[in-house]
Amino acid sequence: MWKKLSWVFHEIIRIPAAHASKKVAKKQALRDSIVHDLAVDTHWKGNRAYVFGLAATGALGIENLIVPQGELFLSVFCSSQKFAGGSWSPKWGLHYPARLSDLEDPVMAACGYGFTMYICGDSRRRRTLYGCGINSDGQLGQNFGLKSETPDSKPLHVVPAPQLIVLPLSKSESEHLSLAHIACGRAHSVVGLEPQAEQDGRIRGRPILFTMGNNAFGQCGRQIVQGELYGPGTAVTSRISLPPEVLGLKQICCGQDHTLLLSIDGVVYAAGLGTDGQTGLGHLNCTDQFQAVGGALRKVHITQLSSVGDTVLALSECGRLFAWGNNEYGQIWPAGDALQVPEPVELPLDECVVPEEAGANFRGVRIGKVLSVAAAGSMCSLVDDAGFLFVWGFGCIGLGPQTNFAHRPTLIPPGLFVPAIPKSPQALVSVTAGLHHFIARNANGLLWAWGAPRSGLYCLGLGVELSKKSSRQTYPFPVKIP
User: Fold this and answer.
1) Residue 321 falls within a domain, yes or no?
2) pLDDT at 340 exceeding the cut of 50
3) CA gap 375, 395 in Å, rounded
4) 373: containing domain
5) Ranges assigned E (strand) in 247-320
6) In whole angstroms, what is the distance from residue 306 CA to residue 374 CA?
């Protein structure tokens, strides 16, 4: 697998011959003669980031896929043409996971619509923030990157490789605060910092929140300014005042144009677009200040949030599941025919379906305590403590080519996740969502993907051959990490 990806790394790391001594050339030859099996190499230290999917926006952070000789060429708009300067042709997408070598020790990543953010730890254990991809609205700060134009002559700024994003912190804050949370929406990003423990082990101080990018609906948690211009030249990195009762953050979650905060005491706060009820604040208006979500969540300790589009799932400490927001496809079935659900509604998890294809051994399966939830654009998923995965809603939900809708949580046949057998040490433990796809992970780090990403099947990282045959993956398929 390492050999298959060698061309990627050859393009990323080039040493000009005029500047390479014989000693350097000898070391390079020795290095290139070694084949690493990264899956079992115990000498490989630190975290690694692997990327796959749409390369045209720069979100993968591999500059050579879209930029020949320093000139930006977006295959999003010119995919059928050759680069004017020669025979070089840009990559539409990366069909399989490839290691992003530009990052040192990444510890967290967040994907927006055409852009990506990372938190990395450097050699001094200090964390830094990086971003790459489209910076149309200043969601990556004041990184101009390379400039191009859309077919209708609108300016387009792309950061083709991860660039440092500097936050406006004082020297004292830099020493006592650590990057802990990142989340990205359609065109905005949110960064959370937490105070570090002092020598006596106690944590003093409160978290700090920064937001960047489009704030047309208040999703950045600051006052909406009518007619505000967005872009890297006018990018604003705003420090947001958190409600005084928020002493720490557990999670930050971004939907398309709304933002959710989860405090360490289990309270959800929301801001942004509310036309589908996605803020959960009991109305359909936009909100530009973070407010606590009440209703059915009052006095319930929430531990996990998920929202990629306009539907929100919230999981409680005891395994209860709540939902609000868009209900056009029956994702929030207790709400009946209501298309917008502006307040949290509890989902009765005893109402589940086990299809015949699952086999006789699983006919009596019921949903146990929920470990992980994922809300895509029009479909939802959960994994319980036994390792069973259930899906519901509309789309390419993973139940085969003949099924594109499930009105209740429906079990995906466990045989499709072998060797992740339920109730075993290798069982599934989590699931995450894109707008039109899911990726599940088991306890050993194995991945399965399915769905119908609009940018192409390569966004699932399942390989070239599979991507050529279809634009949809209708059942879970293994993702091979080199």
Assistant:
1) no
2) yes
3) 12
4) 354-482
5) 249-254, 258-263, 268-272, 287-292, 302-306, 311-316
6) 5
Asked whether residue 36 carries a pLDDT value surpassing 80, the answer given is no
Tokens of residue 47, six digits? 């975290």
Residue 389 lies in a domain: yes
Please tell me the distance from the alpha carbon of residue 184 to that of residue 171, in angstroms, as a whole number: 26
Asked whether residue 373 is domain-assigned, the answer is yes
Q: How do the residues of the chain divide into helix, strand and coil, expressed in percent and rounded to 5?
A: 15, 35, 50
Strand ranges, E, within 389-456: 389-394, 405-411, 428-433, 437-442, 447-451
Structure tokens, 156? 């387009």
On the question of pLDDT at 382 being above 60, the answer is yes
Structural domains counted in the chain: 1
From residue 419, how far is each of 180, 267, 368, 397, 423 by CA, in Å? 33, 37, 20, 21, 12
- Three-class secondary structure of residue 259 per DSSP: strand
pTM: 0.86
Q: Is residue 444 part of a domain?
A: yes
Contact 190/182 with Cβ under 8 angstroms?
A: yes
Between CA 435 and CA 377 the distance in angstroms is: 5
Q: How far apart are the first and last CA of the chain?
A: 6
Task: Give the pLDDT confidence score for residue 89 in this predicted structure.
Answer: 55
CA dist., res. 197 & res. 178, Å (int): 10
Q: What is the mean pLDDT of residues 146-151?
A: 72
Pairing of strands 311-316, 321-326: antiparallel
- Compute how many other C-beta atoms are within 10 angstroms of the C-beta atom of residue 197: 11
Task: Collapse the DSSP code of 207 into the 3-class scheme (helix H, G, I; strand E, B; otherwise coil) and give the result.
Answer: coil
78 pLDDT above the threshold of 50: no
| pLDDT confidence band for 468 (50 / 70 / 90) | confident
pLDDT in tens, 150-179: 667 777 789 999 999 999 999 989 888 999
Using CA atoms, how far apart are residues 280 and 293, in angstroms rounded to an integer?
6
At 203-226, the pLDDT tens digits run 778 999 999 999 999 999 999 999
